[in-house]
Write a structure and sequence with these properties.
Mean pLDDT: 78
CATH topology of the largest domain: Dihydrodipicolinate Reductase, domain 2
CATH class of the largest domain: Alpha Beta
CATH superfamily of the largest domain: Dihydrodipicolinate Reductase, domain 2
Radius of gyration: 25 Å
Oligomer: single chain
CATH architecture of the largest domain: 2-Layer Sandwich
Number of domains: 4
Helix content: 10-25%
Shape: globular
Bound molecules: nicotinamide-adenine-dinucleotide
Length: about 575
């Protein structure tokens, strides 16, 4: 994909072109023969013959022959022949011949021949021939498919939710009800160990179905068995407290139902392994709710790191300095129920590190320092609940439970206010004795691929735009993704080019920056047979890092092998 520059130097290359050009040095040109050049900057041109050139910047071009070029930036390209080109940014392209192109951003294109493209988020295109691409932009895309495809129909899918709390009902269940017409999801019943919570949850969902114009009412299942054995139910959502994941997963699998399990997989490695065994016993994959796997800036950042835009990734920093003192106010306040902040929140982060490392890499060493700071030293004299307290305090329930930017709000269900058990309330005082969870950690993870990763984490960070960032440093550049703005700041070519890629997602004002809508859409394709982005083995791999970090922290930073939890 050949080339203009800010000051174009027209030229023709008849012999192999192996230029390694940065920014304005590579002019417009035509390459006949293999091209293995690296262009950073603005490029326009034509390549006849195999092309493995990497183009970063604005590129327009025509490639005749095999094209394995990763293009980051604005790309318009026509490929005749095999195309395995991942394009990040805005791209418009036509592929004649097999295409396995991965387009991130707005993609318009036509694939003539087999298309296994994963195009996100807005796709306009026509496919002639089998279309097996997971096209996550299907909702906003327009296109025609001629030939056999794997598009899903919208037949009703009956769902039972076990654990009718915030996650199950007020995030995932609510998004399911909102997308009922598009996805066919019908929540048949909710079940909770607190019957009043379940009753109010069902009423909440009924109102959402009515608002979406779908005539459907949600029942309350009296127990787990009744919920999962109902013949009207095809899929079970397990959103109980983290220490209560195993039993409903097992029951659902044994009832022959498809299962969605929220993160973290469990509190103990024994439960996690039992869940992996239950999946094997049932024979169908279980989908896990690592939300960042469905959140556009994370997906784009990691895909971009794989295009070669930064060179091979060598180091990763996940910085999570978040105002999550709510963990001290909710059931998460004990290790027994949640595994602590490093499990509840850290499980997301460790999954991201494993995701960046890739499926072939194994974590081989973990070190960690941190634990519980003195900021939340227990105060036996503090009133137990915020609602009973008139002290001046930066951790008032009504402020700490809401993160507007993340789309997380107060749950319209009074069972949290009426509860007497601290595990069922949401306004426990952060100083209430009895909490034993960690609140900060610095963790390093070494992978057998050579990648080194660091998680820099606390739940007492201030609310700030940059409270959660992912930085990936490669051999020739780095990218830094900021979760709250969704922007990716990319430096390529050893510093020759820097650009900021805006958040390329719709619905960022919906919960988890739109990720829960994407998750529900993905669930629909999961039911139709698509492999989930994350499964229970990913859950186990994440928990292995959590456990190793906890063990290392307790031993003043000694290195632990996460594969067997032994000290190195
Ligand atoms: N993916 C994400 O981003 C995300 C976000 C929030 C929570 N979660 C996860 O979802 C799960 C639930 O968290 P939540 O915030 O919704 O908590 P929650 O307290 O709001 O809801 C959990 C519900 O499960 C019920 N429950 C507990 N044990 C049960 C059992 N054995 N049988 C039936 N009901 C039971 C509780 O009564 C409660 O109503 C946790 O594992 C949590 O880590 C994931």
């Amino acid at each position: 994909m050949p080339a203009t520059t800010p000051a174009p130097t027209p030229g023709a290359t008849i012999t192999p072109d192996q230029d390694h050009a940065r920014a304005p040095t590579h002019g417009a040109g035509t390459g006949t023969g293999p091209n293995t050049g690296l262009d950073a900057g603005t490029t326009a041109g034509a390549t006849t013959g195999p092309n493995t050139r990497q183009g970063i910047g604005t590129a327009t071009g025509t490639v005749a022959g095999a094209d394995t070029e990763p293009g980051a930036g604005t790309t318009a390209a026509t490929t005749t022949g095999l195309n395995t080109q991942p394009g990040a940014g805005t791209s418009a392209r036509t592929t004649t011949g097999p295409g396995s192109e991965l387009g991130i951003g707005a993609t318009t294109g036509a694939a003539i021949g087999t298309n296994t493209a994963s195009n996100t988020p807005t796709t306009t295109g026509a496919t002639t021939g089998p279309d097996n691409g997971p096209r996550t932009g299907r909702d906003t895309g327009t296109g025609t498919t001629t030939g056999q495809g794997t598009e899903t129909d919208q037949a009703p899918i009956g769902v039972a939710i076990i654990g009718a709390g915030e996650r199950g009902v007020y995030y995932v269940g609510s998004r399911m009800a909102e997308l009922a017409a598009e996805t066919g999801f019908r929540i048949v019943s909710v079940h909770d160990r607190l019957p009043e919570r379940a009753r109010l949850a069902a009423a909440h969902l009924d109102a959402l179905y009515a608002g979406a114009g779908v005539g459907h009412t949600v029942g309350v299942a009296p127990d787990l068995t009744a919920a999962v054995t109902d013949p009207a139910v095809q899929m079970v959502l397990v959103t109980t407290h983290t220490n209560a994941h195993l039993e409903p997963v097992r029951a659902a699998v044994r009832a022959g139902k498809r299962v969605y399990l929220d993160k973290p997989i469990s509190v103990s490695l024994a439960d996690a392994r039992a869940i992996v065994a239950a999946e094997a016993e049932g024979g169908a994959p279980i989908m896990m709710g690592f939300t960042r796997r469905y959140e556009r800036p994370w997906i784009d950042a990691i895909a971009l790191s794989r295009t070669g835009a930064t060179g091979t990734p060598r180091m990763v920093l996940l910085r999570s300095v978040i105002p999550y003192t709510r963990y001290l106010q909710l059931w998460h306040r004990t290790n027994a129920a949640s595994g602590g902040a490093i499990n509840d929140k850290g499980s997301h982060h460790f999954d991201v590190l494993n995701w960046v490392a890739g499926p072939g890499a194994r974590a081989v060493s973990v070190t960690a320092m941190g634990g519980r700071s003195s900021i939340f030293a227990p105060d036996p004299d503090a009133p137990a609940r915020c609602s009973e307290c008139d002290r001046a305090c930066p951790y008032r329930r009504h402020e700490t439970l809401i993160d507007v930017a993340e789309g997380v709000g107060r749950v319209p269900n009074d069972s949290w206010l009426d509860a007497t058990d601290p595990a069922d309330r949401n306004d426990n005082c952060v100083y209430l004795p009895g909490s034993d969870i960690d609140d900060h950690a610095v963790v390093t993870v070494q992978y057998d691929s050579g990648l080194v990763a660091c998680l820099f984490f606390t739940i007492f960070g201030p609310y700030a735009e940059d409270q959660e960032t992912l930085e990936i440093i490669g051999e020739s550049g780095r990218l830094r993704m900021e979760r709250h703005s969704g922007e990716i700041d990319l430096v390529s070519g050893h510093g020759a080019e820097r650009r900021v890629i805006p958040a390329g997602a719709d619905n960022r004002d919906s919960s988890h920056f739109g990720a829960d809508l994407e998750l529900v859409r993905t669930m629909r394709r999961f039911i139709a047979g698509e492999a989930p982005p994350a499964g229970v083995r990913d859950g186990l791999a994440s928990l292995e890092l959590v456990e190793a970090a906890r063990r290392s922290m307790a031993a003043n930073g000694r290195a632990v092998d996460p594969r067997n939890q032994e000290f190195l």
